[in-house]
Amino acid sequence: MTDAACPLPRTHAHASVGAIPLRLAVPAAGVRGTVLLIHGRNGAPDQPHMSEIARAYLARGWRVAAPELPHSAVLPRSGPPSDVTLAGHAAAAGQVLAWLRAEYPDAALALAGHSMGGYATAALSREPGLHHLLAVSPVLSGPRMLKARRALGPEAMDELAREAPAYRAELEHADATPALAGSVAPAAVITGLEDGLVTPDHARAWFAAAPGARFFTALPGQHHCPEGSDMAQALAAALTALDA
């Protein structure tokens, strides 16, 4: 699922972590910390729902590090979208996380992820010293994803197998619950009440698995990529709960 792109606000620098392009945005004054903003499957840093998250962090003095992760259909130079997997997405995000630790060794570090990026956030959540976790429409387990996809009908299942066969196979067993259950970082979850891909129950399971869970909301009228004024308000409340 993709949206028309809009620019990542106040982008001042570009970098690369190996073959992964990285967009860096800094707040107008004073940096409180760095958040690694992890997009979902077929996502990109400058999609409207991702920019919504970036703006919320920038307004609170957080540097935003937003990588263009491999195998996204909307990032032509990222490699074949058919090769995407949850494990590969999390591993690529982990490379960027390690780079950020080395580049900004004294900065507070947080993770924020959308959809498959929420799975990566959970998978990386036991990294030491994380300030907090923010998950938007987050994937926790493959079987839950398959249940929702099957509810959309056989055509949706066939499409998934055709578009990303390794990802389809991985969904039979992938589960970030053990990793998230070992995290000590405060966590917040925002989801859309109408989301049919990562259902509200799925998002709530992500919240329930996080020992540091502090804030959960399911926004009426919002789907898989929440944005707009109610999303901005939810982000403000979530970041307040996380002391961000």
The side-by-side strand order for the widest beta sheet comes to 1-2-4-3-5-6-7-8
- Taking all Cα atoms into account, the compactness measure Rg is 16 Å
Low-confidence stretches: 1-7
Number of helices: 9
CATH superfamily: Alpha/Beta hydrolase fold, catalytic domain
Biggest sheet layout: 8 strands, mixed
- CATH level 1 name: Alpha Beta
**Which sequence of SSEs, written as H and E, runs from N to C?**
EEEHEHEHEHHHHEHEH
Shape: globular
Kindly report the CATH topology: Rossmann fold
Domain AB hydrolase-1: 34-125
Protein name: AB hydrolase-1 domain-containing protein
InterPro entries: AB_hydrolase_1 (IPR000073), AB_hydrolase_fold (IPR029058)
Describe this structure in words.
- The chain is α/β, with parallel strands linked by helices.
- The chain has one domain (11-241): Alpha/Beta hydrolase fold, catalytic domain (Rossmann fold), CATH 3.40.50.
- It is 38% helix and 21% strand.
- The protein has nine helices and eight strands.
- The chain has an eight-stranded mixed β-sheet with strand order 1-2-4-3-5-6-7-8, with helices on both faces.
- The two termini are 29 Å apart.
- Residues 1-7 have low confidence and may be disordered.
- InterPro entries: AB_hydrolase_1, AB_hydrolase_fold.
